[in-house]
Amino acid sequence: MIRIHFSTRRDNLMLMGGLLAGLLLLPSVDAAESATWDIPLAGNAFITKPEVGSKDGVPREGAMRLQSPKSVVSVYVHLNKPGRLEMALRLTVPEGTSSLRVQAAGQSFTVEAPAGASRVAPAG
Question: Integer distance in angstroms from the first to the last C-alpha of the chain?
Answer without folding.
Answer: 20
